[in-house]
Amino acid sequence: MTASGPVLSAVLGGLLAIVLCILPGAVLFRLPVLLRDRRAALASEERWFWQLLLSAIWSTGVALTLGALSVYSLPRLVTINAVLAVASAIAWRGGLRLGAAASKPGASALLPLLLVAFALWRFLPAAEYIIGGKDPGVYVNEGISLHRTGTIFRRDAIVAAVPEPVKDLFFTDYPATEYYGLRFMGVFLNDPVTGEVISQFPHFLPASMALGYAIGGVRGATTTVVVWAVFGLLAVYFFGVRLAGLGPAFIAGVLLAVHVIEAWYAKYPNAEVVMQTLVFAGLLAFSYATRDRDRYFGWIAGVLAAALTFLRFDGYLAIAAVAGATALLWIVEHRSPGWGAGLLVAASSLIAWHYYTGPMRAYYFQYGANLPTIDTALLLVAVGLAATLLAGVARRWIGTPLRTVTPVALSVALVALAVYALFIRRAGGKLTDYNAYSIRAFRGLFSYWPALIAGIAGFVLLAWKRFWREPAFFLVFAGFSVFFFYKIRVPPEQFWTARRFLPVILPGMLLLAAAAALGVPEGDARRRAWRTVIGVALLGFIGWQYTVAAAPVAAHVEYRGAIREVEKLAQRTTSRDLVLFEGRNAESDMHVFAVPMAYTYGRDVLIVESPRPDRRKFVEFLEWATSRYERVLFVASAGTDLLSRGVEATPVAFTPIKLPEYATSPWNEFPAGPREKDLGYAIYQLTLGETPPAGFVLDVGALDDLHVLRFRARENAEGRTIRWTGPQSFIAVTGLTGNETQLTMVMHDGGRPQNAPPAEVELFLNETPLGKIQVGIGFKDYIVTLPAELMRAAAASPDPAILRIVSSTWAPRDYFGGTDNRALGVMVDRVEIH
User: Fold this and answer.
1) How far, in Å, CA of 643 to CA of 621, rounded?
2) Torsions phi, psi of 604, nearest 5?
3) Which pTM does this prediction carry?
4) Which domains does the chain have, with CATH numbers?
5) Tell me: the pLDDT tens digits for 12-63?
6) Residues contacting residue 648 through CB under 8 Å, at least 6 positions apart
């Protein structure tokens, strides 16, 4: 590639960034409607924040809408944005200039600039989570697929094309669910006949990643989450300025940026960091709409709420809390964000209802099972509206008591619940330990006592002073805290559990803690010097705690190198190949490569469901596949038993891969730190044919994937390629002549601890016992005599003979500590049958 190639790509990417991420928001913010001079009078740094955020929301929303209509394309999106700009410029001519009403940049502009610079330094580079297997890879590949295919409602042609009699080799029917089966982890297969598939997660975040991919390729897609994290920090900061002032807002922003949860998820594709942005920007817009009666921001609050409905369904928790704040404000002070916000939320909810109960029904099922029916929900909304209107009519009698009682009652309830959860609540019955002790885990692993106490004190202090200025914040914070600390509603492992604290609880607590530490003077009063010194010292100590705890995470890039490795795999295949991948049931991770191969690189991909597929059906499938494709390739690592007398496998390539992966841990432990994930794989070309029998020789740990089953990952030991056996491991023996008399196995006990069970293996061939072997230290030959009648019968069968190895096992974690809990048998280096 010439030097002009990267330069041209950078220039085009920059132009796209302007058209997608700057232009539409600048136009929408500058429209001379709804008292624009009020917006112009905002601080210059906040004006830029709103223009950039509105651009992101607009372009993502348009991309999502076009994708839902299956007509998305980058040129179409660029055209829509250009038309918006040109039509607005023509309609208002020179009216898009803010003019003299716009305030000049001041010293305060340095604070958000410092936050942005610090965040980019801390969060970049993003995790290279292009592989599948968990939520992040689904989000990234779904976004890239939207860019490639133009739709979020796809039909995978290869799924539909697989002949009906052999579909169950690749897809399992789950009758009790809202979907047929899984296409990939995180991708539902709704109909195996048509190939209809749908992502497990709502599409707002993937739509934004489609924009990132358009601007910067695969790395642009994975880096999208960093952009949202920066928006989240700024949203927390600007709302914090409104809530408690510059000092607390800035320090809370810094603490948030150094905190381990933010440091992890700012790099790791997830919807929660986007929710943080939308919730706090929505709270800021709601504040302007209610306190300042700025109807423009009432509409913006509605737009942000509408975006939430297509980000995560539990975004309705924030919407419900803000609706409660609206009702209180209407009753007590006859204030509201305006009808525009309600109209947008109602319209988006109507569309969302069809979205979630239609194509996204598999995702919505878990919510729908625990929520009222739509008729009941509408009735509850109508009753709530009627009660609010009636209470508003009676505000002269109930307004003052509500004004006085609400902040006190909310503060007392939250403090009481916190004390109960921290000191009294116990697991038992249907209450699990990770739910009962969730706030204790949060305190012990993430917030620590100083910040938690300061946060609770800050809630009481600010609710007493400023509840009626920002009621939405207090209700949203309380709602999320009670909802998630009551039941965490996520698999109980870290950092997976910590994602629940990211959108509201963590940033809200830090804002409250900073406000409590520094104080919130009223009117023209200033903070006392001694209060400032003590507060800064306390917050500095909290920041030091967070920095130390997050240091390993800040230095870590999850799956660094994965983009390059997936690209290498894609380059080894073509669009004329059918690529089969080993399935999860083989205790293999190869399925994680299948998702980007299908959705990022557009290859025809299938995952073999069983580690031991039906051999007759597999031959039938291979007859069909070899007639349609130039090559049928199989990517394996752990071992899949699919060979038979009529199926040949020719090695194509072996690629060792080890990528950095952060450890996971139980809900009440902090992850130990980075480790290496072995994703090495071998590629075989599968063909129909029969190799003349010539005995059996297997170099275990080399190109052995189609012969071994239930072994551990390949390793190197003493210059040899080996695999550990598990409790039961299997070897598919091919090429037998019937004249074999001897089995030779080269094994090593692996240096197991003295107090571990002795290394013993018991051997069976086609379930005929061959004897037991005591395996000693060092690699040695162990020889077993084979019965002649058994070998003649095995050679006559069209299927491989199965050598079953039953091993006594031990787990390194039980003897040496650490996280390695594998049940290890013995090391096997070589197997020969002559």
Assistant:
1) 13
2) -80, 120
3) 0.95
4) 4-98+106-127+206-554 (no CATH), 692-834 (2.60.120.260)
5) 888 999 999 999 999 999 999 999 999 999 999 999 999 999 999 999 999 9
6) 686, 687, 688, 689, 690, 691
